[in-house]
Amino acid sequence: xxxxxxLIIVLPLFVLACIIGILVSLMRPFHRENTYTVAQLFSxxxxxxxxxxxxxxxxDLTESPxxxxxxxxxNYDVITIAGGVTPxxxxxxxxxxxxxxxxxxxxxxxxxxxxxxxxKSSATGTMxxxxxxxxxxxxxxxMFPEGTRSKGRGLLPFKMGAFHIALQxxxxxxxxxxxxxxxxxxxxxxxxxxxIENAEPIETKDFSKTKIRELAKIAHSxxxxxxxxxxxxxxxxxxK
Length: 240
What we know:
41% of the residues lie in helices and 15% in strands. The protein has one domain: Glycerol-3-phosphate (1)-acyltransferase (3-Layer(aba) Sandwich). Strands 1-7-6-2-5-3-4 form a seven-stranded mixed sheet, sandwiched between helices. The two termini are 27 Å apart. By secondary structure, it is α/β, with parallel strands linked by helices.
């Protein structure tokens, strides 16, 4: 029953947030701050799902171009880790997102980037375009290197796209991670805490394309360590 009540309340508010985001984006199509504005709107919905959100990501994190990598857990990400989005950031999403009613149009107008993973040459062209846009518009790129939602399976192996872009653009990589949301349920009154925090930047200047998997391995290890730290902190907070 609680889950149904929440859906009745939250879904219209989510759609309303999307419509507000579309209106803002129509006034300034593809503006570099649209994604940040929309992400902040979405993160305000967390209390309605019984989530206490703590965000420790500084807003000046992306004053210069960077590649942000984040863990991708579930549908809750759109309201939890979204709180860690900073100004001047656009995300990279699969091409099929554009067909989701309202959200797809919002995603496009916000200036986010679609990538066709099934077409290697098209995906390569998109990554080249991203690198050029980062330099021209002082943009940072947000990507989920796992490529899919982990759904409680822990941090999955990384795909190389984010690391190729970082090397090509010659920018640092910054992990932004969320504590585990695997136990969250729309039917639970109190889902407890979720903490979003960034780890130390990973410089890419000493890496070449031949060492890209080594770079990905370092990033994976840093994210895993940070997730474990946040999970331990959440466990203590939830006991209080």
